[in-house]
Structures are given as structure tokens and as C-alpha cells.
Design goal:
Layout (H helix, E strand, L loop, with lengths): L10 E6 L17 E2 L2 E2 H11 L4 E6 L4 H7 L7 E5 L4 H15 L5 E6 L7 H12 L4 E7 L4 E4 L6 E4 L5 E3 L3 E4 H14 L6 H7 L5 E4 L10 H14 L37 E5 L2
Parallel strand pairs: 1-4, 1-6, 4-5, 7-12
Antiparallel strand pairs: 2-3, 5-13, 6-11, 7-10, 7-11, 8-9
This protein binds cytidine-5'-triphosphate and magnesium ion.
Length: 280
């Protein structure tokens, strides 16, 4: 795995994994659902490591700490787990506070959805390269392939939209860490709901730079997406066979090689309970 250190210091990634996966349906929390015997969150961490990330903050649920620990037992990077918030943006804010704590020298941060397990290393590296070129907010995106209509106020009617300029936005999104922290404080203080972190940065006037995303980086949202993700994984297997199965939710894994140290944390600034799980 290549780790691209420059004067911008280590790169920390916040992996948000605290959602419940309502649209995916039964089968446990989405981030812990498995593909090829490996939890989505573990695939995501591996993908970020392959793209040049040095340190991971996983935002999950305290009640699932043991499951996350099992799922990430062979993670290629040091990771820490913190409690999620009510909405995704709250989870990101909690993760950023922890990122600043565990990686005080980090200038850049990536924010990634655990629900996108197969982001190619090239996409992660492209986001990092744009940050190192001076961007403060970077998002990977792909052209929209469907014909899109906007529903009109009149029921049953809709207006077609020129799709040539439309882009579907993915993660990991990359940021200057201090800028993103400021952006999240701002959206929280004005009560603005944002669905991604680039929106929070735009709210404080930052310019957002686009880089090419990838169709492989699909977001697992509904049961159909899990089937597609399985197919992506099978297509990659010759190059990246997974290690022995690492069940994340059935408690059978015994390969718990990452030392679990008590956190020095206590409560973070916004009252987030630190779970006291860290891998190194
Ligand atoms: N997420 C989070 N904290 C929340 C809500 C979402 O960390 N309070 C994370 C999810 O775990 C996921 C990512 O944000 O990795 C994108 O969210 P989404 O795909 O909507 O996942 P869920 O919220 O889990 O799914 P659903 O909306 O179907 O319940
Ligand atoms: Mg959701």
C-alpha cells in the first residue's frame, strides 16, 4: 500500500457508519453487512488505505462497538471509533472532533460513507492530489446517465432537464480540515441541513472542486445495490482475494489482533461519548 506523505502531513479519513440502513431492510446495520465475508466498513477502510490515507476515524454506534472491532480486526490502518449523531452531518461533526484529536498534525481530511465500499484507490488519490494542489473542498462525481425530469407542481407532469451538466456526487470528499470544522460549526449554528460536506463548505463561501469519480463507487442503499456491489467485488477477486472470512455480526471471528486500549477521551467538545476503542 502506498502512503503519500508530503508537507501537508498525514491524511485522516472520517468514515461515517452510524446509519441504520432502513432502506436496505433487515439484516443488521448497513455498515456491518458483509460482501465476501467482509463488512462494508472494512471494505471502505481498505479502499481508503489503498488510496493514500494514513489514519481512520470510524463513526458508529456504541452499542455495536464489539461488532465494529471484529469487522475491523485486520484493518490495514489505525482506527478509532466514536459515537454517531442523529443525522449524517452530526456524525461527521463528531468524527471531525475525533480526527483533530488523533491526528493534530493532519492538514487534510477525507469524509467517506461506509456505504461506498468499492471506491477505487485512483479516486481517493485524485481527491488527495487536488487537495495538495491547493483546493480546500474536493468532491468526486460522475456524469448522470439517466434522463432526468423535475416533477412539476401539477401531479403527473414533469419537465426534462439538460443532463449534460449534471453530476452525481460521491465520497470520499476531501477538505482542508480546519475549513471543514469551521463549516460544520457554521451549519450547526444556523440550523442548516446539508446532505454532504461540500454543501457545508459552500455555506461559508468555499469553492468546491470536482474530480472524476467512478461507477464502481456505488452507494449501497437498497437491496438491489447489494447485489451490484457483490458483482463489483467478484469482478475484482483475482486481484484482491479477501483473507479468511471475517464475520462482522455473528461473533465467530477470533482473529482479534488489534490491541484495544482505553481511550483517553471522555466526552468530546459537543458531548460525544468516546467509545474507548482504538486499534493502535
Ligand atoms: N450515517 C451516519 N449517521 C447518521 C446517518 C447516516 O453515519 N445519522 C452514514 C451511514 O452509515 C452511511 C452514510 O452516512 O454510511 C450515508 O447515509 P445513508 O446511505 O443514508 O445510510 P443510512 O442512513 O444508514 O441508510 P437509510 O437512510 O436507508 O436508513
Ligand atoms: Mg440515511
Amino acid at each position: 500500500m502506498t502512503s503519500v506523505h508530503t508537507s501537508s502531513g498525514p491524511v485522516v479519513a472520517v468514515v461515517v457508519a452510524a446509519g441504520s440502513g432502513v432502506r436496505l431492510g433487515e439484516g443488521g446495520p448497513k455498515a456491518l453487512r458483509t460482501i465476501g465475508g467482509r463488512a462494508l466498513v472494512a471494505h471502505s477502510v481498505e479502499a481508503l488505505a489503498a488510496g493514500g490515507v494514513d489514519r481512520i476515524v470510524v463513526v458508529g454506534r456504541a452499542r455495536l462497538a464489539d461488532d465494529f472491532t471484529r469487522a475491523l480486526a485486520d484493518a490495514p490502518l489505525p482506527w478509532t471509533l466514536v459515537e454517531g449523531g442523529e443525522e449524517r452531518q452530526d456524525s461527521v461533526a463528531n468524527g471531525l472532533a475525533e480526527a483533530e484529536r488523533v491526528a493534530p498534525a493532519a492538514r487534510h481530511v477525507l469524509v467517506h460513507d461506509a456505504a461506498r465500499p468499492f471506491v477505487p484507490a485512483t479516486v481517493v488519490a485524485a481527491v488527495l492530489a487536488a487537495l495538495r494542489d491547493g483546493a480546500t473542498a474536493v468532491i468526486p462525481a460522475v456524469p448522470v446517465i439517466d434522463t432526468i425530469r423535475v416533477a412539476d407542481p401539477v401531479p403527473g407532469e414533469a419537465t426534462v432537464v439538460d443532463r449534460s451538466r449534471l453530476r452525481a456526487v460521491q465520497t470520499p470528499q476531501g477538505f482542508d480540515l480546519a475549513t471543514l470544522v469551521r463549516a460544520h460549526h457554521h451549519v450547526r449554528s444556523v440550523g442548516l441541513a446539508v446532505t454532504d460536506d461540500a454543501m457545508a463548505c459552500e455555506a461559508i463561501g468555499e469553492r468546491v472542486v470536482l474530480v472524476d469519480g467512478s461507477r464502481d463507487s456505488l452507494k449501497v442503499t437498497e437491496p438491489f445495490d447489494l447485489l451490484v456491489a457483490e458483482a463489483v467485488w467478484r469482478g475484482r477477486r483475482p486481484a484482491a482475494d479477501p483473507p479468511a472470512a471475517h464475520p462482522s455480526t455473528d461473533g465467530t471471528s477470533t482473529d482479534d489482533t488489534s490491541a484495544i486500549h482505553p481511550s483517553d477521551g471522555g466526552a468530546s467538545t459537543d458531548g460525544t461519548q468516546m467509545m474507548g476503542r482504538t486499534s493502535r
